[in-house]
Amino acid sequence: MKRPDNVLTTVLETHGGHCACQGACGKTHTGDGERCNAASSGKNKPLLAAPQTPHATDVQNAAAPLEELRPWCWPCWRDALAAERARANDRRTQELTEMQIGLFDVDTNAAA
Length: 112
Fold this sequence. Notes:
The protein has helices at 7-15, 58-62, 74-100, and strands spanning 47-51, 69-73. It has a two-stranded antiparallel sheet with strand order 1-2. The protein has three helices and two strands, in the order H-E-H-E-H. By secondary structure, the chain is mostly helical. The chain has one domain (7-100).
């Protein structure tokens, strides 16, 4: 009887046993091009299955379909996720600032 595959096993079989980070973590890698050289075998870092492009929230990352998942080493995933969350926070701050500009348009010619 064949053992059922788990998500990580499926991702590793589909995309290989190397971290899929291509600089998303903000570091320059010395492996295959911009690819991290962490692998699932030997003494290398353990891998996890996560979206190819990190999302800002855990809910979005957990809801990613299997087709979007790639193997990541923990340090690259942590740094790529932090970078995406910082970008999302910057976008929200900019949107909030733009929405509030109209609140402070005071007609100086109006009688008080």
